[in-house]
């Protein structure tokens, strides 16, 4: 039975489950509504930072995210995801005000370090809270739809808000950061009224009164043992690196340099990013458009190569072609994320610390992004943006076939249910018929 059929045939969620879904929607929308995203590169340039400094900060950001992910994932598993969401919202609110108070290299560095801390506190905790909360309310069949709805609402808010960034900056350059702080404060309000799950929630584990640190080590060891016992899960995480790195580097780090390179001014950046967001939202809600005759793991590999090709194409097109390619890039990202995320979640072994494992995946993703950001800064400082785009595409096209072959071999030896895997992990994973993407 497909996920969509099971969701449609399940009973309607209880009032408590609907409340969890509504508050999760509000939290995800407000927490991730970064008004400054379309203009932060130009904002830092106007503040006097060089390309090397800007991309150096991005590399430090990814490294910091790696360092924060394991501790925060374990914290979510130990003390409850709800408390982590509250802490993350507080940190994010303060982080968005730092560029206003200190528009310097140090201020921007502190800003992104705080962003890394805030996002790492919520990256696994948000999905874990929703998953455990709906399961506790016997509404687990609605999880995928709830995740997709939250993502769609968040993308829709960005579509509405980002085109306003240019005019707002003309009134006051700091406005995008102030509005981002206000949005994060709103997410804190949602987190404060999230209901406490019965018993703290399935993801909360009791602390050891004698040795508090022993529990952290135990959870870390359990996550590492799960990866060692399931090469399939480890390789799926690595497969997602190409998707995450390409989408992150393009939509965050290279988006503005590419547009400026083709003569598209800062005032239009919000509108272009909004158009990309529409393309991603439509595609992320319609993974059933991908043929079911092709296994999901194959789709991830093929779409990763398509992402690289679209990114490389921006090196040769004119302004309108570049905008169209960026929208195509965003649409491909929307298609691939729900497929890749379902593959990983279904491959998590039974009784493994889910939030900690998702943190491990984020560490791998952002470690590669840290290296990519350093390389991007070096290429841009040398005036070789086009070479960076071509080399990224070539590297992806070389690595993906080798990784897919390793996945094919690992798929033959996946453990059956009860021997380190789950039933879902030991079988081909169907594409959802009408579900949205889970945020990464």
TrEMBL record:
GO terms for molecular function: transmembrane transporter activity. The chain crosses the membrane at residues 21-43, 55-76, 83-102, 108-131, 297-316, 322-339. InterPro entries: MFS (IPR011701), MFS_DHA3_Transporter (IPR053160), MFS_trans_sf (IPR036259). This is MFS transporter. The keyword Transmembrane helix applies. Residues 411-440 are annotated as: Disordered. It comes from the Bacteria. Gene3D superfamilies: MFS general substrate transporter like domains. Pfam families: MFS_1. Keywords: Membrane, Transmembrane, Transmembrane helix.
């Amino acid at each position: 039975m497909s996920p969509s059929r099971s969701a449609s045939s399940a009973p309607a969620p209880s009032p408590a489950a609907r409340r969890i879904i509504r508050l999760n929607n509000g939290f995800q929308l407000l927490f991730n509504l970064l008004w400054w995203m379309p203009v932060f590169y130009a904002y830092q340039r106007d503040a006097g930072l060089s390309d090397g400094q800007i991309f150096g900060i991005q590399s430090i950001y990814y490294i910091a995210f790696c360092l924060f992910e394991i501790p925060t994932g374990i914290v979510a598993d130990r003390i409850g995801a709800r408390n982590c969401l509250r802490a993350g919202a507080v940190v994010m609110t303060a982080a968005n005000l730092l560029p206003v108070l200190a528009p310097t290299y140090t201020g921007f560095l502190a800003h992104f370090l705080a962003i890394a801390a805030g996002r790492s506190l919520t990256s696994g905790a948000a999905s874990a809270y929703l998953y455990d909360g709906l399961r506790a309310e016997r509404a687990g069949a609605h999880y995928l739809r709830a995740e997709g709805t939250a993502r769609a609402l968040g993308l829709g808010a960005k579509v509405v808000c980002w085109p306003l960034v240019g005019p707002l900056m003309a009134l006051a350059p700091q406005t995008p950061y102030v509005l981002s702080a206000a949005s994060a404060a709103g997410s804190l309000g949602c987190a404060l009224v999230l209901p406490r799950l019965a018993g703290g929630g399935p993801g909360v584990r009791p602390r050891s009164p004698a040795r508090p640190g022993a529990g952290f080590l135990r959870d870390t060891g359990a996550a590492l043992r799960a990866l060692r016992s399931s090469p399939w899960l480890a390789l799926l995480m690595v497969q997602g690196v190409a998707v995450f790195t390409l989408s992150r580097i393009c939509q965050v780090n290279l988006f503005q340099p590419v547009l400026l390179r083709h003569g598209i001014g800062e005032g239009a950046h919000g509108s272009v990013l909004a158009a990309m967001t529409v393309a991603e939202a439509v595609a992320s809600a319609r993974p059933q458009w991908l043929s079911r005759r092709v296994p999901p793991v194959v789709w991830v590999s093929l779409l990763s190569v398509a992402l690289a090709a679209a990114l490389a194409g921006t090196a040769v097109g004119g302004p309108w072609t570049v905008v169209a390619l960026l929208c195509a890039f965003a649409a491909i990202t929307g298609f691939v994320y729900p497929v890749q995320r379902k593959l990983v979640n279904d491959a998590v072994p039974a009784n493994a610390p889910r939030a900690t494992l998702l943190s491990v995946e984020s560490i791998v993703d952002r470690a590669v992004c840290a290296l990519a950001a350093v390389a991007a800064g070096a290429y841009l400082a040398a005036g070789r943006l086009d070479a960076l785009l071509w080399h990224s595409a070539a590297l992806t096209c070389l690595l993906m076939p080798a990784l897919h072959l390793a996945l094919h071999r690992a798929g033959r030896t996946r453990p059956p249910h009860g021997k380190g895997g789950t039933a879902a992990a030991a079988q081909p994973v169907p594409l959802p018929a009408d579900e949205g993407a889970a945020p990464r």
